[in-house]
Amino acid sequence: MTIMETAAPSPLEITTSRQMLEWMHEQKLSIALTTYQIGKLFFLGLKADGDLSIFERSFNRCMGLCATENGLYMSTVHQVWRFENLFHPGQLQDDFDRLYLPQVGNTTGDLDIHDMAVDADGRLVFVNTLFGCLATLSETHSFKPLWQPPFLSKLAAEDRCHLNGLAMKDGRAAYVTAVSQSDVVDGWRDHRFSGGVVVDVQCNEIVTSGLSMPHSPRWHQGKLWLCNSGTGEFGYIEPEAGRFVPVTFCAGYMRGLSFHGDFALVGLSRPRHNKTFSGLPLEANLQARQAEPRCGVQVIDLRTGDVVHWLRIEGVVDELYDVVALPGVRRPMALGFKTDEIRRVLSVES
What we know:
Layout: E1 12-16, H1 20-27, E2 29-35, E3 40-46, E4 52-58, E5 65-67, E6 71-75, E7 79-85, E8 98-107, E9 113-118, E10 124-128, E11 133-136, E12 144-147, E13 163-169, E14 172-178, E15 196-200, E16 205-211, E17 214-220, E18 223-228, E19 233-238, E20 243-249, E21 253-260, E22 263-269, H2 281-288, E23 296-301, E24 307-315, E25 322-327, E26 332-334, H3 341-344
Parallel strand pairs: 8-26
Antiparallel strand pairs: 1-24, 2-3, 2-25, 3-4, 5-6, 6-7, 7-8, 9-10, 10-11, 11-12, 13-14, 14-15, 15-16, 17-18, 18-19, 19-20, 21-22, 22-23, 23-24
């Protein structure tokens, strides 16, 4: 059968820096993005002629995204989907080299699932933001709790601290980020300016405090990197002093972080004009640089801290949640539930 590339919702304009597409070709890399704002999973790859390929599917409030050996996990408003690539190595169809099928869906209820990762045992670990804990999938319940921060007195569906980010190290959950240490319902909103913390999951200790809306912690090349989203600074944690070391200022509200060798791919959003985003240091930092907030992806060279490539999204999309690099993939596509194609895609396990 033939699967047609779906048109991105109009109006949507994606522009790139002069060498972004050449860099993707050299690195043999594609990018997956989620935006809960309009409920879209985007795949950005390269066509045979080197132009940008944009493929999208609709999933209600899609957020957390992580890659597996042959697929993806993605959280939506009340489910977690596991996508499996159906193509064999070297197989192409209509110039696409990956076809991601939503193979298994787990109904979790609306847990406001943020970051996700797969541990060394192949188990999915996700940030259950509503309950403020790390959790995994359950065959019989909404979720199975694995860990909660020491400053939370109970497991409650109250989004007390806005736990959001997860970093894995050696195949185990190692660090998380939270907007605050609040232990009352929705208490994190009162501590957006400087209440953010990084918690060591194994030691149950606060590693760093004083952050502003931290997101997307990731362990890479022996360092714990993260987005100090409320200030617009990308950087790492200095272990001895337990302090955040800014490396690069990004003109936008950062969420979503993925690495490819010496490069970091950082997702940017234009902050909403509401109480959650207003009054953050990011506003003053943008004004000081005479910059307007952007939506898109910036590629940062970790060796210099410079933004060497960028991708900018304008139009209907103002916010991204997650960014995942897909190495070895040139032009991916996926199946969704709003067209008839999924009925006709059949595969046999050998």
